[in-house]
Every structure is written in structure tokens, then in C-alpha cells.
Design brief:
By secondary structure, the protein is mostly helical. Helix content is 93%, strand content 0%. The protein has one domain: Helix Hairpins. The protein is built from three helices and no strands. The radius of gyration is 35 Å and the shape is rod-shaped.
Length: 148
């Protein structure tokens, strides 16, 4: 694989990794928002069911109790639905995190290959330079020996 091709693969892998990071951040943000909504709903339910609320001067006639019961049921349904949504968003977040890790590993593999090739190229150049230096030293020695 040519150096230019490898460099293009690294650039593409970086873009794919960055896109995966953006998707993971968005999924994480959505999951956090779902958790906050769930917390609010649970707070409403706790407030609605709190003993202080039950002991105040609220009428306890049958129609009022039915309204309170329906409200409680709706809050419970909303909490159940929000819990499912939060759990689904957590699963999406984990999938995105896994995808990001895979993309990062792929990028790292390309970067490692590039670094190894660079190192090998430098080693070849150093050996070539050393060989030239050795040849020049040998030629200089031969000239001195002929001249002596």
C-alpha cells in the first residue's frame, strides 16, 4: 500500500471516528435528557402522593378521589413510558460507544502501520547513509595507503 493511500485511509478513518463521536455524544445527551424528564415525573408523583398533600384541606369526596386516582394512574403510565424510553436511549448510547471504540481502534491500526512504515523508512535511510559514510572512509583509507 502506498504512503499516499495510507494517508488518505487515516484521514477517512479520522472523519469516521469523529462522526461516531458526534453520534455518541448526541445519544448520550438524549439519554441524559430522558433521565431528567423521568426524574421530574417521579418528583411530581412523589409530591402528589406525599403525606403532606394528603393531609391538607383537599376535599375527599368521591369525584375528587377519582380525579386524584386518574391523575396518579396517568403519572404512573408516563413514568413507565419514560423509563422505557430512557432504557432504549441508554442502549443506543452503548451501541454508539461501542461503534466509537471500533472506529478508534481502526484509526489506531492505520496510524500504527503508518508509524511502522515511517520507522522502517528512517532505518533504511540511516543504513544507506552509514553505508555511504563507510564507503567514503574506506576510499579515503585506500588513498592514504596508496599515497604512503
Amino acid at each position: 500500500m502506498k504512503q499516499r493511500t495510507l494517508q488518505k485511509l487515516i484521514e477517512q478513518a479520522r472523519r469516521v471516528r469523529d462522526d461516531a463521536a458526534v453520534r455518541m455524544a448526541g445519544a448520550n445527551r438524549d439519554a441524559e435528557q430522558a433521565q431528567q424528564t423521568l426524574n421530574v415525573l417521579c418528583g411530581y408523583l412523589n409530591q402528589h402522593l406525599s403525606p403532606d398533600k394528603a393531609n391538607d384541606q383537599t376535599p375527599t369526596d368521591s369525584p375528587t378521589l377519582q380525579v386524584r386516582e386518574r391523575f396518579t394512574q396517568r403519572l404512573n403510565l408516563a413514568i413507565d413510558e419514560q423509563t422505557r424510553q430512557r432504557d432504549n436511549l441508554h442502549e443506543v448510547t452503548e451501541q454508539r460507544r461501542s461503534e466509537l471504540i471500533d472506529r478508534q481502534k481502526r484509526l489506531l491500526a492505520f496510524e500504527t502501520l503508518h508509524a511502522r512504515r515511517e520507522s522502517a523508512q528512517q532505518s533504511r535511510e540511516q543504513r544507506r547513509d552509514q553505508k555511504r559514510t563507510d564507503e567514503m572512509a574506506a576510499q579515503a583509507l585506500q588513498r592514504r595507503l596508496r599515497g604512503s
